[in-house]
Amino acid sequence: MPVPARKKSRSAVRRRRSHDHLNAGNIGVCQTCQAPLAPHKACKTCGTYKGKVVLDVTRQAQRLAKNAQPVAHDHNDHEGHDHAKEESPSAKPPAKSKKKKTS
Length: 103
Ligand SMILES: [Zn+2]
Fold this sequence. Notes:
Number of helices: 4
Strand order of the largest sheet: 1-2
Largest sheet: 2 strands, antiparallel
Number of strands: 4
Order of helices and strands: HEEEEHHH
Bound molecules: zinc ion
Mean pLDDT: 80
Distance between the termini: 71 Å
């Protein structure tokens, strides 16, 4: 089985690896809101592409808020609900546990 004739020196390895780096790529700026923006992508901040509105960012914000993980509660009034039941280690993901059964 062929093997390298000799060990590569530390210098040779480092010289080779001097090109093994990533660059940041092109990052543009939104024409409308000046937010940093990938090229050929609509702006997620203001929902525009080349000055035209192409995304409904208000609906996107609503969807993100709806799908967000439930945050820890910050109230001291525990009437009408049981936290021991909510925090029990069940196999259900948190998104399903949000649905209430009507039975
Ligand atoms: Zn924008």
